[in-house]
Amino acid sequence: MLLVHQEPNGQAASSQRYILRLDGSINENNCGTDGWSGLLESDADKATYATLLALMMADQTIKVQGTDADTCLAGNMLIRNVYSKW
């Protein structure tokens, strides 16, 4: 599942993010949930989002690597890298 989200009263770019939930497990996650978050602030953030969207639409296997296990955003780990192979 891929959800684009904006905080109800958020005006700053940092209030815009997407939330990714994958089948499978998350290792070394101290955030307390099974989700991932990515910001939509920079060009790299937007490229990551576009890559995830394309891979999901192509029904490809996705591996996501996050930031430090203790760095969370609203209960989700922050996405750092996205992996896939075809």
Question: Any descriptors?
Answer:
single chain; alpha+beta; six-stranded mixed beta sheet
Description:
The protein has one helix at residues 43-57; strands at residues 2-6, 16-21, 35-39, 63-66, 72-73, 76-83. Helices cover 17% and strands 35% of the residues. With 86 residues, the protein is α+β, with helices and mostly antiparallel strands. A hairpin with a 2-residue loop joins β5 (72-73) and β6 (76-83). The protein has one helix and six strands. Strands 1, 2, 3, 4, 5 and 6 form a six-stranded mixed sheet that branches. The mean pLDDT is 78. It has one domain (2-83).
Query: Tell me, what's the shape?
Result: globular
Secondary structure: number of strands: 6
Largest sheet: 6 strands, mixed
Gyration radius (Cα, Å) is 13 Å
Structural class: alpha+beta
Low-confidence stretches: none
Q: Report the helical percentage.
A: 10-25%
Give the termini separation. Answer: 21 Å
Query: What quaternary form is this?
Result: single chain
Total number of helical segments?
1
Mean pLDDT: 78
Order of helices and strands: EEEHEEE
Strand content: 25-35%
Structurally, the number of domains stands at 1
